[in-house]
Amino acid sequence: MAWGCLALAELARRGLLLPSSLPKVVHVVIKTLHYDVRRGPHSVGSHVRDVAAYVCWAFGRAYHHTDMRNVLEQLAPHLLSVACYDREVNCRRAAAAAFQENVGRQGNYPHGIDIVNVADHSYPERNTKRNGKRKRER
């Protein structure tokens, strides 16, 4: 599943995926943003979620905001949930970067910059001890 998603990302990044096919692809991307399979005592799927965020990032880079309006309305809530609640740090960061890229390039998100700032400060690792001292809150 990750390789197929990576192929989609590369096609999108290079602009080879037609804008008319984006609504068909968005359902696959949403499924892969939440992909998780239990294998014994642990889960597998962070690589798929990471690649799905890359697809969303590539969409923001490659397509005009008029082509992306409906797609972004569907992707935004899923990107935000992964950016705030995924258990893997790399998936949270990738989803946050994809959301930020789309906010900056597409401009179709109401209060997009405010959401980026709040989501950026919601990382749990930013509030952990660093070098034995707790980081001061602003």
UniProtKB/TrEMBL annotation:
InterPro entries in UniProt: ARM-type_fold, ARM_TBCD_2nd, TBCD
Sequence ranges assigned to domain Tubulin-folding cofactor D ARM repeats in this UniProt record: 4-113
Pfam families from the UniProt entry: ARM_TBCD_2nd
Coiled coil: none
Superkingdom of the source species: Eukaryota
GO BP, sorted A to Z: microtubule cytoskeleton organization; post-chaperonin tubulin folding pathway; tubulin complex assembly
Molecular function terms, GO-annotated: beta-tubulin binding; GTPase activator activity
Chain ranges passing through the membrane: none
Protein name: TITAN 1, CHAMPIGNON, TUBULIN FOLDING COFACTOR D, EMBRYO DEFECTIVE 133
